[in-house]
């Protein structure tokens, strides 16, 4: 089982790594053309609702409900255009995504939203293909799909923007959604999956999927609202560039989050679903513990690196054109707090899948009611101006990280009670060792920066490489098991694949 999960993780991480590279190229192009301007603030806010729907359909709710049911059956042998009519209200209302924007920017946001909502119709179909391929333990094509989406936006930025302005990005996103769908079609053909244009309400499996999906839809609605909606609503009143700065910081943080938390979560989910179908609690506990320890071993040093090397990362990636040194400082301020979010979100990736594997999407929903309320309260409090003791847009990032961390802890506590243990002692011990090694690594990088004052690029490349070696050596010295077992499992999987070929 370990080799299979490790191999699946390798495939997913490889595809997601490619997606991250292309995504960063996409952001570099966007940064050069729009910087942290009011126009990009409008685009970022307008994209919040389509991204919410994308997360529910292509990235979350349907897959969480579909994979366990479809896997169980294997073991045995839309968004409507009318939503566009409400775009102005969704922007201008006090609870909307841009209530503090100027009237001109509010109009622009509403118009952009109308275009971006088209992509959700395409993603609704694409999400079904993704869930089907994952259930068949096929991860390559779904992992490539996000790269196709970024590729569409790059085409929009390069080809469409000169004539359409910021609308070029919106139409590029629609093109990216089409590419996201098309790249998965060969896999569907390979597995002989057929689609029948019928509602099929009498199919009991469909009813189970619908029952499981409903709580997850609401759960993800609140989760994305905690990021996109709250950031846009409160950020629109913090000054020009704050909304887009939060978005840049989120995307930088999203790179390690995706490569660590999402990749491991996606890879382990079908295995956990199969174990849940077999009612093997011991194996489920073991899979959860292994996944969490692997995530924490990688996420804790990644968070420290985001803090100590975040400024040169942002400068090298984005500075130039309309993206100025002031833009770098705005983004870095938020990124420092998003480092906490990266850890808690990565852990949550596995925790919620542990519930979904048991076909339980209601419990995470009930937990998220509390944590969403906590997020909103913290966001309002922490986003006050610096002069009043707040953290401005950095407070919005911190609020999300704290709330998600609480959500993960509550979920683990419930699993601990349900399974009579989640191997908590071992998880905490490895997390403590990883935290110690990460802090030592970060301190040494800061010391080197203070003594030698290297250039931004040298600090980024040299500090990152040296930091990785320091952490790896300390982790081995402290006896963190995942530092040894994960590479070995990946090597064994690769060798096994080569032997078969």
Protein described:
With 501 residues, the chain is mainly α. It has one domain. Helices cover 82% and strands 0% of the residues. It has 19 helices and no strands. It has helices spanning 2-34, 38-46, 48-59, 61-75, 87-92, 103-116, 118-135, 140-164, 167-182, 185-190, 204-235, 242-277, 281-318, 325-357, 362-382, 393-419, 424-452, 456-478, 481-500. The longest helix is centred in the middle third of the chain and has 38 residues, at 281-318. The two termini are 20 Å apart. The model is unreliable at 77-83 and 493-501 (pLDDT under 50).
Estimate percent helicity. over 70%
* Cα end-to-end separation: 20 Å
Low-confidence runs: 77-83, 493-501
| Distinct helical segment count | 19
Q: Give the total of beta strands.
A: 0
Question: What share of residues are in beta strands?
Answer: under 5%
Rg, alpha carbons: 22 Å
User: Which descriptor suits the 3D outline?
Assistant: globular
The helix/strand class is mainly alpha
Largest sheet: none
Tally the structural domains. 1
User: Which series of helices and strands comes N to C?
Assistant: HHHHHHHHHHHHHHHHHHH
What is the arithmetic mean of pLDDT?
A: 80
SSE layout and pairings?
Blueprint: H1 2-34, H2 38-46, H3 48-59, H4 61-75, H5 87-92, H6 103-116, H7 118-135, H8 140-164, H9 167-182, H10 185-190, H11 204-235, H12 242-277, H13 281-318, H14 325-357, H15 362-382, H16 393-419, H17 424-452, H18 456-478, H19 481-500
């Amino acid at each position: 089982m370990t080799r299979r999960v490790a191999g699946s993780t390798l495939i997913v991480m490889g595809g997601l790594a490619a997606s991250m590279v292309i995504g960063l190229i996409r952001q570099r192009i966007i940064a050069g053309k729009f910087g942290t301007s009011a126009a990009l603030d409008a685009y970022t806010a307008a994209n919040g609702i389509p991204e919410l729907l994308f997360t529910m359909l292509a990235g979350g709710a349907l897959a969480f409900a579909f994979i366990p049911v479809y896997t169980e059956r294997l073991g045995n042998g839309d968004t409507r255009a009318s939503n566009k009519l409400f775009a102005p209200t969704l922007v201008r209302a006090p609870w909307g995504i841009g209530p503090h924007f100027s009237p001109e920017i509010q109009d622009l946001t509403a118009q952009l939203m109308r275009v971006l909502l088209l992509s959700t119709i395409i993603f609704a179909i694409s999400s079904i293909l993704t869930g089907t391929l994952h259930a068949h333990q096929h991860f390559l094509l779904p992992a490539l799909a996000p790269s196709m989406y970024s590729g569409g936006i790059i085409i929009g930025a390069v080809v469409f923007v000169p004539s359409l302005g910021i609308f070029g990005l919106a139409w590029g996103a629609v093109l990216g959604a089409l590419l996201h769908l098309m790249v998965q079609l060969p896999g569907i053909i390979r597995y002989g999956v057929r689609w029948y244009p019928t509602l099929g309400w009498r199919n009991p499996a469909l009813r189970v999927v619908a029952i499981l999906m409903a709580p997850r839809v609401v759960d993800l609605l609140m989760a994305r609202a905690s990021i996109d909606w709250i950031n846009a609503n409160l950020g629109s009143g913090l000054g020009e560039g704050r909304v887009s700065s939060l978005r840049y910081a989120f995307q930088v943080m999203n790179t390690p989050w995706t490569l660590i938390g999402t990749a491991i979560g996606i890879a382990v989910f079908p295995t956990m679903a199969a174990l849940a179908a077999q009612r093997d609690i011991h194996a489920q506990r073991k899979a959860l513990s292994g996944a969490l320890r692997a995530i924490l071993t990688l996420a804790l040093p990644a968070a420290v690196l985001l803090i100590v090397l975040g400024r040169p990362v942002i400068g090298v990636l984005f500075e130039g054109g309309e993206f100025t040194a002031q833009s770098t400082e705005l983004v870095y301020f938020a990124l420092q707090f998003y480092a906490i979010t990266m850890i808690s979100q990565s852990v949550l990736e596995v925790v919620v899948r542990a519930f979904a594997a048991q076909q339980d999407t209601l419990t995470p929903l009930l937990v998220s009611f509390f944590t969403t309320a906590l997020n909103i309260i913290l966001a309002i409090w922490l986003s006050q101006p610096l002069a009043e003791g707040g953290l401005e847009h950095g407070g919005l990032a911190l609020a999300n990280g704290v709330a998600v961390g609480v959500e993960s802890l509550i979920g683990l506590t419930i699993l601990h009670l349900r399974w009579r243990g989640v191997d908590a002692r071992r998880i905490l011990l490895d997390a403590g060792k990883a935290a110690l090694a990460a802090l030592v690594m970060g301190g040494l990088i800061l010391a080197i920066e203070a003594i030698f004052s290297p250039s931004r690029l040298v600090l980024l490349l040299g500090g990152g490489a040296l930091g990785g070696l320091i952490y790896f050596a300390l982790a081995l010295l402290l006896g963190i098991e995942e530092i040894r077992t994960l590479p070995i499992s990946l090597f064994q999987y690769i060798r096994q694949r080569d032997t078969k070929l």
